[in-house]
Write a structure and sequence with these properties.
alpha/beta; 6 helices; globular; single chain; Rossmann fold; 6 strands
């Protein structure tokens, strides 16, 4: 389950809202790996190059809005892997403290509903300093800095959660780095989505590899 906001949906800017974002390249990478992957969710969108257009990306949604609907989506889809990137829209009005609290609540709800699923939690892309209000850029940066500690606290509670560090994304990976007329300072460009696909792909392969290693370790010796 690819879960999040307009970055998961695949918005690049005012003139490109249906690119699929990172999803087409991630799908193609899984196909090349010969992994039997199926995307799940309540929404479908994206270009013809995307073999599976299903997702749970909701443009404009905040963490609280995702939290309010997540049980229904998870109970219907029953995902093995959940790829969560959320928080960009919260930077508009929410304080950092509120963002952290809402993020923790969402994680708890996901892991309570799907305790055997693997939850991969990513940092969010940077926000252009010229975006309005200007505080959004700082909130995104400080929120990203807090995510590893939040994830570590959940791991200590034996939750199946992993941090996917995407802080390698820069302002140059935003559509707005070309012109704020093309975007409002929030969305990745093609280069940014390419990086996100690589981050997700590598993280999923690691989780799968670690799970196979653990199963082999637990399997009785002949």
């Amino acid at each position: 389950m690819l879960l999040g906001d307009s970055v998961t949906y695949g918005v690049k800017g005012t003139s490109d809202r249906n690119s699929g974002g990172y999803r087409p390249e991630l799908w193609q990478k899984f196909v090349a790996d010969a992994l039997p992957v199926k995307f799940v969710g309540s929404r479908t969108s994206g270009p013809d190059t995307l073999g599976d257009k299903t997702h749970e990306g909701h443009p404009g949604w905040t963490m609280k809005e995702i939290t309010a609907s997540i049980d229904d989506w998870l109970n219907t889809a029953q995902p093995d892997l959940i790829l969560l990137m959320i928080g960009t829209n919260d930077t508009r009005k929410s304080s950092l403290r509120t963002m952290i609290e809402n993020f923790s609540t969402l994680i708890d709800k996901i892991t309570a509903c799907c305790p055997y699923s693997q939850l991969l939690v990513a940092s969010i892309p940077p926000i252009h300093p010229a975006a309005k209000p200007a505080i959004r850029s700082l909130r995104a940066m400080y929120f990203n800095a807090a995510i590893p500690s939040i994830v570590a606290s959940k791991v200590a509670q034996d939750k199946k959660i992993h941090f996917v560090d995407m802080r390698g994304l820069s302002i140059q990976d935003l559509t707005a780095s070309l012109s704020l007329d093309l975007d409002i300072g929030l969305h990745p460009n093609a280069q940014g989505y390419h990086k996100i696909a690589n981050f997700w792909h590598d993280a999923v392969l690691k989780v799968i590899s670690d799970r196979q290693t653990n199963l082999a370790f637990l399997r009785p010796q002949q």
